[in-house]
Amino acid sequence: MSWSVVYVLALGGSALLGCALTAAARMGGHRYGVLDRPTDRKNHTRSVPVTGGWAIFGTFFLMAGLGGLGAPALAGSMPEAWDPIPQYMRNLAGVRTELLGILGGAAWIFTVGAIDDVKPLGPRFKLIAQILAVVPPIVAGVTIRGFLPYPVLGWALTIGWTLLLMNSLNFMDNMDGLCATVAGTIAVVLAIAAAQGGELWLPVLFLSFAGTMAGFLIFNFHPASIFLGDSGALTIGYLLAMFSIMTTFYQGDQPSGLPVLIPLAVLGVPIFDTASVMFIRWRNGAPLMVGDRNHFSHRLQAMGFSVRQTAVTIGLLTGAVGLLALPLRYLHLGAALTHLFAITLLFLVIGALEFFGRARPGA
What we know:
It is a single chain. By secondary structure, the protein is mainly alpha-helical. The chain is 70% helix and 1% strand. A two-stranded antiparallel sheet has the order 1-2. Helix 4 runs antiparallel to helix 10. The longest helix is centred in the first third of the chain and has 30 residues, at 3-32. It is globular and about 60 Å long. The model has no long low-confidence stretch (mean pLDDT 88).
């Protein structure tokens, strides 16, 4: 069996499982009243379950948790003709601690988000909870290292990076299908980046997550019959942060040090959206943590894009920026700077679209 077959099975299997668990989560949301009810500030006209996080965490736990932790035991029952895959599965016992750390943090932030979906916890408590979610992976050794001289700097950067992505993906959950589309796209790009770096198991993990997003989108694409809720959006941001930390972008024999910027580009669209919205709120004197319609997605809608067109467009931009950044690991300084300039131009395009969206009457 080749690794390409494993990747297809991971993607397809997680999509099927994600679809099934999303259907179950939707029924559970209706049954137990975990609903987002329509108000004057919301676009939907009927109560919609906010239990998407149940399906996403459940799928990830089953695919990555049980699959990754149980792989060494399963390898013994696989035909030796499938080597080197069985042998590689046996070696996964060496990453069991890291995987448990990530699963522990994901379980915590999912639980906090699920409670918040039922009874709002307040921003201060949620911030503390988000910081605590990063403790298990740090203890397990999943931290940003790079060129940092002291481990404590890596811990602080890991916490800051994870908080940024959890809140960026949560902010991006402002329209049917948008957050899951962007997250699935990022996961596919990270899978390619991991494969380019010689990793074999990480692409399986990332593609399992991308398949989960695909299965969820069947019910979440406009008109959505289930929402992510904080339990879903925060979990998605947390896992993408962990995925980007686990992926090796820079190695000592590369032509320049610019590959360390790859994760910033791959995850740049949600980060840029968060930064621009926070700047607009600060400039207007509005509360920083109160929702509004200043997001990139809202600007596209003001220009005439439908909800589906908006989700697909932002997903395509996310993929374009991420894929354009991947060659940085192979390019010498001059060519790498050209790629970075092209990426900057794409973000300028996003900024221009935001400006014209605001300039349009009624936007």
